[in-house]
Amino acid sequence: xxxxTRIFKQLLLGFFVATAAGVLATIVHPSIGxxxxxxxxxxxxxxxxxxxxxxxLMIFLNNSKTAAIAMLTGIVFGLGSWFIVLFNGFMLGAxxxxxxxxxxxxxxxxxxxxxxxxxxxxxAIILAATAGVLLYRNVRRGxxxxxxxxxxxxxxxxxxxxxxxxxxxxxxxxxxxxxxxG
Length: 182
What we know:
Blueprint: H1 2-28, H2 30-45, H3 52-72, H4 79-102, H5 107-141, H6 144-171, H7 173-176
Helix pairs in contact: 1-2, 1-4, 1-5, 2-4, 3-4, 3-5, 3-6, 4-5, 5-6
């Protein structure tokens, strides 16, 4: 499991670097964050009256799909997995900065909208990406079957984590972040 830990740590570092890049890019060019925030709003936030269970289901299915793609695209030299982690980190930094700069949310409120579910969701996506990088490395070594089994196991753990994160994001985060009911 040493290789799993090493890859996970590398991807986690990449996620945080990409998050910082998203923050800096939005500070330098605010339109970047605004465009990404609008994209996210249209993709997911366009359903403000979704019942909490429907919201949970939408979040869980979307994040599970992202995890599966992060694992499966790893077969391409591990690059697909890295792309998903870096892209999500950049999006988090850019959108958080754009929301803060609108003045509609304080820094504390933005943190409270991310942390409750993010402490589970972010590692879950990174774990799925780790599974993808491992899949590539094991296929390259000629142990594709065993590597695929390990990758599926890690993906299963990731999806279980995403289930918990989606519950928190749907039922707890809006209350803690002060956006419940509207």
